[in-house]
Design a protein that fits this description.
Chains A, B: InterPro entries: CinA, CinA-like_C, CinA_C, CinA_KH, Competence-induced_CinA, MoaB/Mog-like_dom_sf, MoaB/Mog_dom. Chains A, B: This is CinA-like protein. The structure is a homodimer. By secondary structure, chain A is α/β, with parallel strands linked by helices. Chain A has 3 domains: 169 residues, MoaB/Mog-like domain (Molybdenum Cofactor Biosythetic Enzyme, Chain A, 3-Layer(aba) Sandwich), CATH 3.40.980; 74 residues, Alpha-Beta Plaits (2-Layer Sandwich); 152 residues, Alpha-Beta Complex (Maf protein). Helix content of chain A is 41%, strand content 24%. Chain A is globular.
Chain lengths: 417, 417
């Protein structure tokens, strides 16, 4: 079983865009037991596309093509496909209706080039693209399946998840790989490995596999069983949850805003924020969840000291005596915000995101986080390094995980060592 | 002149590692006038490597290979290379000395596998790898150059910069590829294409090329000249700027927060936000820029109606009569925020991010944006579709571009049609 990805686009060849589509597809297919054997990136010219289709046809059962579809004139993919599959373009009324309603809903006029998107090769089966105007196209030629999709990542992902992967699984009998991913926050990869080494050894002894997938502020742990032993994977997962409750916040695709939101909903409690160095990012995270208005009232972005005093009732003397980035200030910010926003929980943060503004005493990356809750208040200091964007990202994740632990009554003041 | 990159490694095919090596190489080569025409990613098996070398040989003058070299896996790649170039492995004393000193300096014992790294194909010219133990290898076969490099990014980069690119430039007389990218916001790909079609036709007639690179809320336009005509590219760029000042906000890697921040700095003006559906994301964007405290004081996140009234002084009757998502409400939010935050410019937004909460009159994706400035206030309604995350992203970009236009005195009320 050979699977090939053909990525079309000059922007990929000259390094203007990194080919994350191919990685995402490779990972999704692997998770379903399907291994990609070739990824080929080419220019959107007649010769390059034709050549790639011919080579791919010779060596694969499945060929997934992305890019080269879109309303402007630099796209010739559909024409090449017609020639390759010996067919012609015909109007697809369903696609035309979809494209038309796409523009009507957005209150925008439709152009001739948009109508052209409803012209599809007669020999293909159209895969409905809910997220955009270029449809996916499924072809079969001498036992090889070819699927053409637009290169816009969220359109491609929609087509892969709703149409392509389910159809491939149905068409070909793949070996079933069982995997489950657990999400941790607030502990580095090597510390985590040390903490769970006994458990990991046992897991490997029983024939399961474990992968560490780190990203800034987070480590995902993926347990997998090549023999499809779902029960064993789940029981090791349960053990892990008991071992590291301070760090393990969720499973699979869950996010911290989702997990925290669910807890607040259950408890019928509300949350607000008073943010300095994160500039609103914590609240942006909390409100990224549909239905968050049930537990979110709003927040204060007190970037300047003046606004810390005016909006969050921080005492000017506290700022003078201890500075904006201090335990005293974040505690007053959280208390002021809790009152001003009339919420059960208030998160406050103040830090030096950098790259400028650090000192020996308070280096760039110093962040204070406080949480003022129904029963108690906590505060902690962190050092997140010199990268501005990364410090903001780490602060958001850390603050939300602190809130999760406080709501659940997990002691965050004492590290679990 | 055809150049191909062959990336070897299973981790790339299953999406565990994103192929940033190929992007980096593509960008570096493009900057030197060398355009990559194929990137091929394969598994480290005898068949896959041999097949890729044969195909690449047939269609290229230069083939750059990364990966498949290293103490644990260089067996197979080096053996395939020996077979392909009809040669055998011999000991290279210089490489052996380098590998030995590499371990001596780090006070680590050298293993037999490390000594094997000094065995190189007799037919190649060794490219000295200062950064690691696997050397680069330069082969020539029937007018095609093949270069094999390790896949570790900093080792590959060292070899490319110190050896490969200088040698290629010396060996081949490249035509210089010149490119410039212009960034637009607020106009779809097909509308943009229609608006600039006369200009685009002229550009193509003069032998330049144009690519449309869309992403949510934005379209990048890349002008390129294969003959290195920098002046022609720049003059078409200047014309474009004059044609669509409402949409064209920057060049190359610039971001809207950067562009807006620079304008505010120059004018010595300040900005604040009153955000509902974006939950702080506009302010998070503005404060992502280092030094933004010079023009940012802070913002109000008024997710609930109560906070719209309490923090931004919106009249409760306005909310009752027109609803939270209305022109009347966003204008009052902007005016209230401007006063409360004591800023020169205040952006306010209120919308239905969805996927729930829409009505016939105000469907999901309806967003009102207002800007209250030193001299006047403006407001506009948008329909951004049903995807929550995308609506937030589009709202942030649109609001920042509206602010840019207001600061520059570009009339945003009238569409430039």
């Amino acid at each position: 079983m050979n699977v090939e990805i053909i990525s079309i686009g000059d922007e990929l060849l000259i390094g203007q865009t990194i080919n994350t589509n191919a990685s995402w597809m490779g990972a999704q297919l692997a998770a379903n037991g399907i291994k990609v054997s070739h990824v080929v990136t080419i220019s959107d010219t007649w010769e390059a596309i034709t050549g790639a289709l011919e080579e791919a046809h010779a060596r694969n059962q499945v060929v997934l093509i992305t890019g080269g579809l879109g309303p402007t004139k630099d796209d010739i993919t559909k024409q090449v496909l017609c020639k390759f599959f010996d067919t012609k373009l015909v109007l697809d009324q369903n696609v035309l209706n979809h494209v038309t309603s796409f523009f009507t809903k957005r209150n925008r006029p439709m152009l001739e080039t948009n109508k052209m998107q409803a012209m599809v090769p007669e020999a293909c089966e159209v895969l409905f693209n809910e997220q955009g105007t270029a449809p996916g196209m499924w072809f079969e030629k001498e036992d090889t399946v070819f699927v053409s999709m637009p290169g816009v990542p969220y359109e491609m992902k929609f087509l892969m998840e709703s149409h392509v992967i389910p159809r491939l699984i149905k068409k070909y009998p793949f070996k079933k790989l069982v995997q489950k991913t657990y999400l941790t926050q607030g502990i580095g990869e090597s510390f985590l490995a040390e903490k769970i080494s006994g458990w990991e050894n046992q897991l490997r002894k029983e024939g399961l596999d474990l992968a560490y997938l780190p990203s800034p502020g987070m480590v995902k742990l993926r347990i997998s069983s090549g023999s499809g032993d779902r029960a064993r994977v789940a029981s090791f997962g349960e053990e892990l949850k008991q071992m590291i409750p301070l760090y393990l916040y969720g499973e699979e695709e869950e996010t911290l805003p989702e997990v925290v939101g669910r807890l607040l909903l259950t408890n019928e409690e509300t949350v607000g924020t008073v943010e300095s160095c994160t500039g609103g990012s914590i609240m942006a995270g909390l409100t990224s969840i549909s239905g968050s208005s049930a537990y979110v009232s709003g927040g204060l972005i007190t970037y300047s000291n003046d606004l810390k005093i005016k909006l969050a009732q921080v005492n000017p003397e506290t700022l003078e005596d201890f500075g904006a980035v201090s335990e005293e200030t974040v505690l007053e910010m959280a208390a002021g915000g809790k009152k001003e926003l009339n919420v059960d929980w208030c998160i406050s943060v103040s830090g030096i995101a950098g790259p400028l503004g650090g000192s020996d005493e308070k280096p760039v990356g110093t962040v204070w986080i406080a949480i003022d809750g129904p029963e108690r208040k906590v505060s902690r200091k962190f050092l997140f390094g010199t990268d501005r964007q990364r410090t903001v990202q780490m602060t958001v994740l850390t603050a939300l995980n602190m809130l999760r632990c406080e709501i659940l009554g997990i002691n965050i003041e004492k590290k679990q060592d």
